[in-house]
Amino acid sequence: MGDFNSDRIRNICILAHVDHGKTTLADHLIAGSAGGLLHPKQAGRLRFMDYLDEEQRRAITMKSSSIALRFKEYSINLIDSPGHMDFCSEVSTAARLSDGALVLVDAVEGVHIQTHAVLRQAWIEKLTPCLVLNKIDRLITELNLSPREAHIRLQRIVHEVNGIMSGYKAEKYLSDVDSIIAGRSGDGWDENQEFVVDDEEDTFQPMKGNVAFVCALDGWGFSISDFAGFYASKMKASKTVLQKALWGPHYFNSKTNMIVGKKATDGWKNVRPMFVQFVLEPLWQVYHAALKPDGEVLSTDSEKKVLGSVIKSFNLSVPARELQNKDPKIVIQAILSRWLPLSDTILSMVVKCMPDPVTAQSFRIPRLLPKREIVVNEESSDVFEEANHVRQSVEACDASPQAPCVAFVSKMFAVPSKMLPQRGPNGEVVNNFVEEGESEECFLAFARIFSGVLTSGQKIYVLSALYDPLKEETVHKHVQEAELQSLYLMMGQGLKPVSSVKAGNVVAIRGLGQHILKSATLSTTKNCWPFSSMVFQVSPTLRVAIEPSYPADMSSLLKGLRLLNRADPFVEVSVSATGEHVLAAAGEVHLERCIKDLKDRFARVSLKISPPLVAYKETIEGEGSNLVESLKVLMGSADCVEKVTSNGRCVVKVQVVKLPPALTKILDESSDILGDIIEGKQGQSSGTLEALKESSSTVDDSLIKSLKKRMVDAIDDEIELGSKELDTDKVEKCRSLWHQFLERIWALGPRQVGPNILLVPDYRGGNNDESILIRGSSHVSERLGFVNTSGTQAREGKTNLLHNEAESLESSVVSGFQLATGAGPLCDEPMWGLAFHVETYLTPLVDSSDEPGLSTQQIDQYGLRTGQIMGAVKEACRTAVLRKKPRLVEAMYFCELNTPTEYLGPMYAVLSRRRARVLKEEMQEGSPLFTVHAYLPVAESFGFADELRRWTSGASSALLVLSHWEALDEDPFFVPKTEEELEEFGDGSSVLPNTARKLINTVRRRKGLPVEEKVVQHATKQRTLARKV
């Protein structure tokens, strides 16, 4: 792998929606440039990169795999990636190791939901994209479009994809990708910013050569530059001029041999753009000459002359037996694959338009290794300088042996040990011993070398994402030393051993199976920052409990789960509070593949799989938009829930309101940033001010300011929406009070980063002279920048001892809040979007001198006060939620369906049975398919695809993406009260359990909680007239 310089290397991945032709395109690239690895006649049918049995059976790609191609004097590392949303994690691993992306779009189906996702992934990873419009032949054979209609359709697709990229450039969609997927155009777009974007060049411009028009199944494709080269000599024109004129509103005057604009064509007959006249019409002629309307071969002399003229015009050598074949597809492939070879077209575009590793890493470095502005002391200055030197080597893609070697492992993948090469790079016999704990599976690291040279047998440091070279305590936790056993050049399923790899290449590494779980950074020096974490489009939401059919196989199951957790970059394995082993996957297809791998490869035992474990949230009634009403509750105008500890020394008063939905969503999406912020405050308890400053430096100030601004904007937007009919003074008062509440955030929950807020109690609301309020402090507000100083206020009370006792109990109040928000009152599910105002009053101990017969132990005979306060706060919060009309919140999928017109009825019947809410339906232009967008509850999604295929005879397809959380608008404790309700339901005995109650009971049964239900439906027993003894 050392034969190519860095400027002669290209690392690319293929990204697209499912079934848009990625693997078929990869087949033709392999057949044309892999040195005879695949015969051209098998390309598009063998699906070489889908070597797993499950991939061949389902006809979809399930993992990203790499292969090295040779094109002229270039080395091209091609990574094929899945298009199914369940395997989007593989797209992230492929994008991280690549410098460019081939984005495929079906010319008939157009831009779909996953197209948005892969374009966003390419934008985040700073890849250079090229657009490939695939399945051009379907415009002729299926839709029967004319060349002019096809031109309009292709223009629309290119314009739509450019619009998506322009939105990413303007940062319009990055804040809310769910709204993009759902097709909800941003209401708050900045018009001035949009004009700035319009002035910039489009990302994809056919005249620049970064757009290709292909038919991967038939093996032909072209770009504008190909036809510009064809016609330059015939028309005696400049290739550059023709390349610009062959796309857009340009027309050719055959009388003057001039290229003119639209205005100069007035009075012309049969006006056609040059792209239609010189590019599409010759293609249409070949197809029409080879195919009859019913698909039979034409044998008339006129059609043969058309094909002959094309062959003669472009000097093609086509064997006569292929031209005389009775299969019209073979005739078309024989002509077009020689006239417009697909492999040459795509790889030429890759070499011309995509950057080499040296160029790519120079502008990708802010994403890969963000620059850190840290104040260092004299002791750590040498470490910081060496870390910066490593970063500069990565930025320059330094491939010299003296440069520090840095690589990134995006995933671990398992291969059977028998598939490993038996000989080394020099032909020597290799001892493929199996690492301990791997049984018959060997784990290889899928890696990209960013700097230096990696050699077999080299010792290297494995750095986790949490490693910090400036902190000595992280060295022992997040750094491991490993020895690389073997290096392999990946050739799809095959592996070719190599002795060394230079910077800029993709390689498989053996010997890291016991050191890396998912991903890691490799470096020859400890003084190196780890690469930034990869971004995944979705999270694993589908969970099932797994146990062996025979308890004796539990050890094999545990071993298999460990191997599966390492082999799949997205699966999550955990143990629930009840002791169940829970497997979390991205969707049904992903889960089926994980279970199959577990049974057949890793555990090899019979398994019992539970029904899917669906996650819910709990909240209270209200849209959250009427913030004025919420203020009345927090200002003390509403009744509060009061609880007293068992020893009578502590009184807890709780009020709860619902947060605005926008603020709740921000808190939920920013959990990672909030986690760093909350961890920073832990340094305060360790004692030193330096520790607090050091911890705060781990979080970028710009991120904190951005999060603060988003929270304030969310409050302001909700106030404007819900207070249009109020006076300006009331609106301003409401806004100022909500901003004050943002300055009183004591804690977030559950797990310190959830979407629920604990507010610092208002000190003005005192209880009596004998008690003291446990004040708390606005730690989170301080860390978010809402409060400039710690804001410690003077504490008043009778004795300093009581104050100290109250301060020591602050953590108990927070712990009770965390327990309450982690398990709500309906079915022990986490709470969602609630703000709690907790006032805890502590009374002093009874003076033992007044009652000499009592001791302190007898006075406080019910146990520790910390536990009592935690329990009291927890129960008070749960009771407050129950009094405020609790509601269940369920996760929603955004569902995109494609259905023929005749199957719309059965499709809507399936959606209605599963409580789906249809958003819109539209007919695809020039196609008999309808595209339907809907929201589908996650709880109703299991088996949805199979039922849809069954009811529509396989004609409908659906793709699901996790969209948002939505509250069920049903009261689980509904009892008829009004006259209308009593008239409809009577006394309530005939009211059937509503959907919310059914879901709650299902979760409670699964968790072993008591369920209120009638065990006996009909208490009368059958009686007979005769009694026989």
From TrEMBL:
InterPro entries: EF-G-like_DII (IPR053905), EFG_II (IPR041095), EFG_III/V (IPR035647), EFG_V-like (IPR000640), EFL1 (IPR056752), P-loop_NTPase (IPR027417), Ribosomal_Su5_D2-typ_SF (IPR020568), Ribsml_uS5_D2-typ_fold_subgr (IPR014721)
GO cellular component: cytosol; ribonucleoprotein complex
GO molecular function: GTP binding; GTPase activity; ribosome binding
Keywords associated with the record: GTP-binding, Hydrolase, Nucleotide-binding, Ribosome biogenesis
Signal peptide start and end residues: none
SMART domains: EFG_C
Superkingdom field: Eukaryota
Pfam families xref list: EF-G_D2, EFG_C, EFG_III, EFL1, GTP_EFTU
Domain Tr-type G: 7-239
SUPFAM superfamilies tied to this protein: EF-G C-terminal domain-like (SSF54980), P-loop containing nucleoside triphosphate hydrolases (SSF52540), Ribosomal protein S5 domain 2-like (SSF54211), Translation proteins (SSF50447)
GO BP annotations, alphabetical order: cytosolic ribosome assembly
NCBIfam families per UniProt: small_GTP
Protein name as annotated: Elongation factor-like 1
